[in-house]
Amino acid sequence: MKILVTYSSKTGNTGKVAEAIHQVLPGAVLFPVEQAPNANDYDLIFVGFWVDKGTADAKAAEYLRRISGKPVALFATLGAYPDSDHARESLDKAAEMVPDCFVVDRFICQGAIDPKLIAWMSQLPPEHPHAPDEARGKRWKDAERHPDDTDLHNARSWAARVYYGKKS
Ligand SMILES: Cc1cc2nc3c(=O)[nH]c(=O)nc-3n(C[C@H](O)[C@H](O)[C@H](O)COP(=O)(O)O)c2cc1C
User: Fold this and answer.
1) Buried-most residue among 107, 125, 138, 145 (CB within 10 A)?
2) For a substitution probing ligand 1, which of 49, 52, 89, 140 has the most ligand atoms within 8 Å of its CB?
3) Which helix (H) or strand (E) holds 110?
4) Which pLDDT score is estimated for 54?
5) How much of the chain, in percent, has pLDDT values that exceed 70?
6) CB-ligand 1 contact for 80 (6 Å cutoff)
7) Nearest protein Cα to ligand 1, atom 8
């Protein structure tokens, strides 16, 4: 089985998860999405993205839209909590980008938010939808530590389950 792992990552979080996933997939190749080969030449494709405004970032989205009729496993990192509606909906939106593929499974974890974005959000007026408040400040702080060793362990276990599920 030919396996491709590809990912888009602006500040490195999704790249770390992609590397962890790649480690457990026998014979898989790993490419940043900018250098990825044609996904349609592979039997199983893992595509990773960072969540940008509630959906897959533009580079990953463009790549996803070119995949056709293949099993696809989606993974992502985001600033929000991985068990939030926002996380689920972000994955749903990415899945909608591959309408004629079978989405085998999905994985998501938190990833540290670019300090430049935090600095920008920190100065927003209180009426702005992204203005800082206590809950948001805690979420930003919690995200700082991710992806951590547990996330990477979970990503490896997830990828192995996907792989062995496809093989048998
Ligand atoms: C411009 C921008 C937009 C973002 N939008 C969201 C968002 O809508 N929801 C969210 O939970 N996190 C958002 N984030 C946080 C990133 O998804 C998160 O930090 C991710 O781990 C970055 O991954 P990377 O290091 O692979 O680039 C945003 C970050 C940036 C820089």
Assistant:
1) 107
2) 52
3) strand 102-110
4) 97
5) 99
6) yes
7) 53
Between CA 102 and CA 83 the distance in angstroms is 23
List, in sequence order, the alpha helices (H) in 2-57: 13-23
Instruction: Kindly state the DSSP code that residue 71 receives in the 8-state scheme.
Output: E
Overall average pLDDT of the 121-130 stretch: 91
| Structural domains for the chain | 3-111+147-167 (3.40.50.360), 113-145 (no CATH)
Tracing tokens 């056709």 back to the chain, one arrives at 68
User: pLDDT tens digits, residue range 60-104?
Assistant: 999 999 999 999 999 999 999 999 999 999 999 999 999 999 999
Task: Evaluate: CB of 55 within 6 angstroms of ligand 1.
Answer: no
pTM metric for this prediction: 0.97
Q: Which of 10, 110, 141 to mutate to test the pocket of ligand 1 (most atoms within 8 A of CB)?
A: 10
CA–CA gap between residue 120 and residue 22 (Å, rounded): 34
Total length of the chain: 168
> 150-161 pLDDT, tens per residue?
999 999 999 999
